[in-house]
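Sample intake sheet
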Amino acid sequence: MAKNMQPIAKRCKALGISPAVMGYSKKETKRNPGGQMRKKKSEYAIQLNEKQKVKFVYGILEKQFHMYYEKATRMSGKTGENLLSLVERRLDNVVYRLGFAMTRREARQLVNHAHFTVNGQKVNIPSYLVRVGDVIEVKESSRSSVAFKRLTGEDAPLFTVPQWLERDKTALKGTVVKLPAREDIDMPIEEHLIVELYSK
């Protein structure tokens, strides 16, 4: 299985995004602090940068990302918004958004190790697309592990669940109440540039 192993802080700096978007609040890089960067980018470079941002944040490689784009073009509505909605609905992202993992990379690993069920069925595919009404739950046999115990105690970390999801505070489960809208995605992304790039 292909994995994105790029260094977080270095890549965030190159793409101009905050490591906090990735779930890393204290990561930064001291490499090349006063580096000479080109001030003016070509139109193609700007479009490519937007695509690379989304791929990096969600941990998606090119082939799969292009499949999402093709699917987005066949859906009604704006292609760019459809594309962001599709990647936001990935199971690994939903696990992260519900607060069951600190980062999307951790969420991907937890899903791969079959710690979650969707509507009572074990799902270990990070790219699984959730639908309205789906119930995502930590598997019964996994709840005693350290990774999940810390989420229910008095010292449980605080997090903000987006409006399209609902988390049961008394149980390790969440529900998809609606599909994610553009305003639910808090990343600084200009999705129309990605559409323009693929439309060439």
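Comment: Strands lie at 116-118, 121-122, 135-138, 165-168, 173-176. The first helix runs from residue 8 to 15.
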